Amino acid sequence: MIEQIAFLFLIYLSGLIIALIIKNSQPLGFVLTSAIFWGALNWVIINIFIALIIKKLDMTLYLIIVGIQITFMSIWIIKRNKPIKKRAVTSIIIFSLIVLSLELFFSEYNFTNITPDSLYVLKMSQVIAKTGFTNLRWDSMASFGYFIGMMQAAAKLINVDYLYILQPMFSMSFIFLFGYILYELSEDYGSTLVRVLFSFAATLFLFSSTIMRFEFSYIHSNLITAIFLFLLIICYIFWEKTTDQSWLIYAILSGLGFSLTRTENPITLLIFVTLFLGISRSKYAQRVRYIAPMIGLVAFFEAILLFIDSPHVKEMINPSMVFVFVVLLSFYLVFLLISKFDIIEKWIFPHLHKILTFFSLTVLFCAIVIKTNHMVVSSITLFSSAVLQGGWTTCWLIVIPLLAIFSFRKANTDPSFTLLQFGIPLYFIAILIMSFIDGHPYTNPRWSSSPNRMFTQILPLGLLLITLTLGKIKPKNIS
Amino acid sequence: MKKVIFAGLSLCLGGLGTISILLHLGIAQNFNLFGKIVLLLFGVVPLSVFLFTSINIIISNLAVNRLIVSIVVTWISLLLISSIYTLPDPVKHHIITIASSSQVGPTKSFSFEIRRIEIRNQITKQLSPDSFKALGNKYPGEVYQYSPGTALSLSLQYSGSLVVFPDSNYCPNIVVITSDGKTKQQDLCLVNKESGLILSNSESGTIPPRWIFLYRVIKVIDFTLLAYGIFALISIFELLLILIIQKKPYHIIADSSPTQFPRIFINSAFLFAFMIFFILITNFVWVPGYLPVLMILFLDLFFRLSPKQYFSSSLFAVFFSIIFIAGALINIIGGKFYEEFDTIGMAWPTNLEEYSFSAIVNRIYKSSLDVVMFGYDNILFNRELLISDQTLEYLGFPDEKLIKRVGIKGVKFLQTDPFISNTLFNCFQSLIHKTWTDSNGNGYLLVDQKYYSVDDPVRLAQYQNYFLLVPDSLFNDTEICK
Questions:
Q1: A259: Cβ contacts below 8 Å, ≥ 6 apart
Q2: Looking at chain B, which terminus has fewer C-beta neighbours within 10 angstroms, N or C?
């Protein structure tokens, strides 16, 4: 029990140091509530390289690397001559104690939810810990993504069967993060009390549905995917608001984390990056400095999957699909690098989000024409999942009408608003198109189906959009 | 001229909308002349007026190109939706009597019991006591004793076929059945106990041909009309309320922007379309599900009726906070609706001893062979598994995918388990081993990997309430287990 607490606290601390290093104008609340995710991402990336090089995981090696990392980062913090204020230190200590208390609580009460998928991931993680990526009989990162498997691989190194406090700690941190961000973004709402009430109500609503309560401690990839996507979007939103470049460093990490959590995420990442590039009117230097490295790293981690020898991978995931992903990411990288040409800079970039939307709608339209019945069945299943059988209870019944009503509003021209206004429907369309590519229509509307669980990733964005819209409503705009 | 066209259009739409609503409610199927007059007066005319008013407001407030785009987009999306929805479930009133046959002698009593009554349509359902009694019937289940000359009368509204399951006290028990004016004789003793006695003919309760034609004609637009029709009612209600409360013409109260009202109109129509789509697609009415929609409507009404000087983002935030908290409460209370979570949710027991990987495996797979394979994969990898038919029958056949994942070389089925004496079992227990107990009380004893030679198959055997996984060689090995 104590090993898990120590391990996760180390993950939190390493994440905190990383976040403090990058921190510029970021509020401390963001740094604290997101720390565990940066630490976890750090663990995953370091251990991917360890697994590739020495073909097993090694805690000592990780501790040495993290030790060096933390030492250099701490020196950097001190040298930067930006002393952390006394009040901030107090906040860090208090929040760290809260994290520790929560870890103690969740180590005492095991809330873990599991399905056969969770077992495959856990078995995969045991194999990774012992033999790296060389003997993936149970499952592969190509079907479940790197993230959860790599995290759970730590269990073997600290001699526990599995990390049962990992998911609840991710969920609790996300609850804090989500509530805090909603509070920050609701500055137009007036009094602090109203802002606190609203962020509390929206967070409660987000985690109240049956499926989200299940996801709270479910060993799977959906919630962590939702977290990194949420982080990615809020980094873009705050960058738009503050023009502080350090938000884009957080965005790189979020995008990387997002792409490591599920197989299809690198392509979903391209959707959001493309929308961002179209809406934000970013400069070439920003694209090369911040977006291109992210895409390059994502392409690299995706390419690793092509060289993993696992009989199971060939059954579950078509290797040519992974190859297509790598090619697409590589082309995208090249496109970013050559985007200095006038024709791209002036004629394509400002309309990139519209081009993407047009392209997605065209693909959807073609899919409907080619396989009408297939797409209708998938749409009905998705609808039924969202409003009746997927465990969402009233969540989508409230959010869909609100999003529909707000989408008619023209009063808000804020880029972050537009990003979500385009991003959310495109995510739904992407899920639909996935059924077309997969060749099988979605027929299972129950909680256990993959597309239904993917709604976990969209719901926080829906609530974020509602929050942003409400703040912009003025008496003269009221209908 | 424009007004005349609008009026004509509204009248047509109003008429079709009314018929559509009445068809969905199952009222239109039983209209007589009087019903048609009522329909004209209280259905078509008011709805046409509503639609006329609505169209007029849209036209006077909206640029024509935007109007066309809005209508075309809405209609196309709704047409797509309406093309996949099923026929309504129309009902018709039926009168059925079961009387004694004239062949029955005066001395013989006419007696039978109806065990249950079903309506067979797309979904077979047993009639509930309430719906049965509401129409003046006695609920079946008691023994009905009828003397000659009396009859059991049933007055029911349904679609499809009515099926009764009678039990007769004596045989033959010939009765005369009159169903919607058609008469036939039937010996109740010859009624199949499983399939029952079908009382009405196949045409019973379905839409008459002229209605089917009409229904097909209006089907493509009826969904749209329904959504707009209902919204027209709400809009007029709102308009009246505003006029009563603020005593001002609507256009003064409405925002200075001329597009405000149509936007509300289209949004709300979308909202209703969403609700109706939900009902049609799921054929399910769940009251908590509509509460959020009603809340949004209430919100819309509230903000339009409230004095504008009090409007602020704070007010909106408080309002939406209430909606979210209400939604969250419904989520938590209504969560039980999703029953599958009660059985598959697998909330974990708060028992420290069970915080092991094998406990998870046990939890998922109960006592199947899969548990063994999951928990023992390091031993099973690249080995042959020997299992007897008897054990296989108890544990169930292993999952094919799991066999692949575990990496078992092959599964060999044997006719019997080897004989395991107490001494041999004690020997196994004396070796390094692991034990599990599953939720059915079966024990698992798993001998450690060190006792396996390179190509040693794994033997899965049964001993009392234990399943043993041991190296096959141990059964013959006199050195380790004498």
A1: A265, A266, A269, A298, A301, A302
A2: N
Which A residues 129-148 touch B at CB under 8 Å?
Answer: 137-139
Do residue B314 and residue A448 have CB atoms under 8 angstroms apart? no
Integer Cα distance of A250 and A259 in angstroms: 14
Distance CA B164, CA A78 (A): 87
- Partner-chain residue, chosen from A204, A380, A397, that has the shortest CB–CB distance to B324: A204
pLDDT digit string (tens) for B397-446? 766 777 777 778 888 888 777 777 888 888 888 888 877 776 667 777 88
Cα separation, A428 vs B20, in Å, equals: 32
Interchain contact, B321 vs A200, CB within 8 Å: yes
**How far is B204 from A81, CA to CA, in rounded Å?**
88
The 3-state DSSP class for residue B469 equals strand
Kindly report the backbone phi and psi dihedral angles of residue B417, in degrees, each rounded to the nearest multiple of 5, phi listed first. -80, 150
* Helical pair B313-334 and A395-407, crossing angle rounded to 10 deg: 150
Q: Nearest CA to A45 among A334, A259, A291, A221?
A: A259
Q: What is the C-alpha separation between A18 and A79, in angstroms, rounded? A: 15
Give the residue carrying structure tokens 């394979």.
B373
Dihedral sign for Cα A258, A260, A262, A265, please: positive
Which of left, alpha, beta for B413 (phi over 0: left; psi -120 to 50: alpha)?
beta
For residue A164, the distance in angstroms to the closest alpha carbon of chain B comes to 8
- Tell me if A383 and B331 make a contact (CB, 8 A cut-off): no
CA A77/CA A21 separation, integer angstroms: 6
Q: Is A113's CB within 8 Å of B347's CB?
A: yes
Evaluate whether ipTM surpasses 0.85: yes
Q: Give helix then strand counts, H and E, for chain A.
A: 23, 0
Spatial distance between the Cα atoms of B200 and B182, rounded to a whole number of angstroms: 9
Q: In whole angstroms, how far apart are CA A22 and each of A76, A183, B276?
A: 10, 22, 50
Instruction: Using alpha carbons, select from A10, A203, A215, A1 the residue that is nearest to residue A109.
Output: A1
Q: Exposure string (b/e) for A273-299, b if CB count within 10 Å is 16 or more?
A: bbbbbbbbebebeebeebbbbbbebbb
In 3D space, the residue among B368, B373, B380, B355 whose CA is nearest the CA of residue B438 turns out to be: B368
